[in-house]
Amino acid sequence: MAIKEFPETEPDRLNVVIVEDNRYMRESWQTIIDFERDMRVSAAFANCEAALQSREIAQADVIIMDIELPGMSGIEGVKEIKRRSAQSTIIMATVFEDDKNVFQSLQSGAIGYLTKKVSTSELLAAIRTAHNGGSPMSPAIARKVIESLQSQPARKNPESILSDREREVLEYLADGKSYAAMAKAMFLSVDGVGYHIRNIYEKLQVNSRAEAVSVGLRKRLIRLFR
Amino acid sequence: MAIKEFPETEPDRLNVVIVEDNRYMRESWQTIIDFERDMRVSAAFANCEAALQSREIAQADVIIMDIELPGMSGIEGVKEIKRRSAQSTIIMATVFEDDKNVFQSLQSGAIGYLTKKVSTSELLAAIRTAHNGGSPMSPAIARKVIESLQSQPARKNPESILSDREREVLEYLADGKSYAAMAKAMFLSVDGVGYHIRNIYEKLQVNSRAEAVSVGLRKRLIRLFR
DNA sequence: GAAAGCACTACAAGAGTATGTAGTTCTTGC
DNA sequence: GCAAGAACTACATACTCTTGTAGTGCTTTC
Question: Could you tell me the pTM of the whole model?
Answer without folding.
Answer: 0.58
